[in-house]
Amino acid sequence: MAQASVEQALPIESAAPSIPKKVRRQQKLKRIFRNKYLYLMILPGLVYFLIFKYVPMWGLIIAFQDYQPFLGVTGSEWVGFKHFERLFTEPTFFQLLRNTLVLFLYNLIFFFPVPIILAVLLNEIRLMVFKRFVQTMIYIPHFMSWVIVVSLTYVLFTTDGGVINEIIYSITGKNVNFLMSEDWFRPLYILQVIWREAGWATIIYFAAIAAIDPSLYEAAKMDGANRFRQIWHITLPAIRSVIVVLLILKIGDILELGFEHVFLMLNAMNREVAEIFDTYVYTAGLKEGQFSYSTAVGFFKSIVGLIMVMLANWLAKKFGEEGVY
User: Fold this and answer.
1) Distances in Å between the alpha carbon of 91 and those of 86, 88, 280, 293?
2) Are 100 and 47 members of one domain?
3) Are residues 36 and 177 in the same domain?
4) Residue 17 pLDDT level (bands cut at 50, 70, 90)
């Protein structure tokens, strides 16, 4: 009887009408037209990425050429992996790699947890006026350029009348040359990053915390959970997926620390610990005119970033998280 019922069902399934391609295409066009304003909203972003991210990829070809501007991409000599071999055999390669990785670890260890902590602490504030005031104050530094941030640091820490140095001198009778010291470069760097970016980075975590069901907190209160227990067992687990995604994206920037900030703090006295790939590309590419070589350095950074994102995403999925893709 079961076999007969299966045989009877087969013709019905095979006879099920399939939607023609033309009809599916029309339905898709109707959906696009119905949501036309949403597509218009994302259009500027798509155009931006197309013009400034994808089209310039064509220029990566000069990393495999001995590029001459007057000959152009099509007329320049093809040299294969010559510039990559030079990069890996340069005496400064491991110094650049060490400096870049150390600053990245500073960012990962000292900066990355700060927005999470700030978002959780601000979420516990019940006085809305004070909460909004604090949020505004920690957002403002993000809108200052690195030129202003480094200039403020100079005003505070310079040995020539800097406020901090004046205080130190009044206590100890001597100045500390923060700006020219190799030992103080990295602490100053990470303090500037935290002061400028930590407040702005809390926005994503605030959005994730706002999506948590309030009834979970009410149930925890009824069970006798204090504030700390509620944070540990409800807030942090609820935003864990957001933390993982942002961590994966952060790891992708392992060699991409940004040029402007480090360049403004770089000087002859701290170059040994401050020179990174981004500043090296500027020196080799723009100041010395080695376009192919500097492109090869940038290409190397991009490949490492891609590998790290894929590896971090794989590990996240391995531990049961969603990942980026």
Assistant:
1) 10, 8, 13, 15
2) no
3) no
4) low
My answer on whether 108 and 28 are in the same domain is no
Cα separation, 248 vs 325, whole angstroms: 11
pLDDT, tens only, 190-248 = 999 999 999 999 999 999 998 999 899 989 988 888 889 999 999 999 999 999 999 99
Inter-CA distances, 40 with 7, 26, 36, 109, 218, Å: 51, 20, 6, 40, 42
Are 151 and 194 part of one and the same domain?
Answer: yes
Q: Which two tokens stand for residue 210?
A: 């706002």
- Give the burial string for 100-126 (b: 16+ CB within 10 Å, else e): beebbebbeeebbebbbebbbebbeee
Evaluate whether 255 touches 305 at the Cβ level (below 8 Å). yes
Same domain, 115 and 186: yes
Instruction: Quickly count: other Cβ atoms within 10 Å of residue 238's Cβ.
Output: 15
pLDDT of residue 162 exceeding 80, the answer is yes
Q: pLDDT digit string (tens) for 253-292?
A: 888 888 999 999 999 899 999 999 999 999 888 788 889 9
Range 82-110 average pLDDT: 94
Does residue 208 sit in the same domain as residue 289? yes
Q: Provide the pLDDT for residue 13.
A: 45
- Residue 89 sits in the same domain as residue 39: no
Domain end point (choices 67, 93, 120): 67
Structure tokens at 162: 């800097």
Cα gap 36→31, rounded to integer Å: 8
Residue 196's pLDDT is 95
Overall number of domains in the chain: 2
**Number of neighbouring beta carbons within 10 Å of residue 269:** 13
Same structural domain for residues 112 and 1? no
**Closest to 138 measured CA to CA, from 120, 156, 122:** 122
Q: Which string of DSSP letters, residue by residue, matches 60-106?
A: GGGGGEE--TTTHHHHSEE-TTHHHHHHHH-TTHHHHHHHHHHHHHH
Residue 74 lies in a domain: no
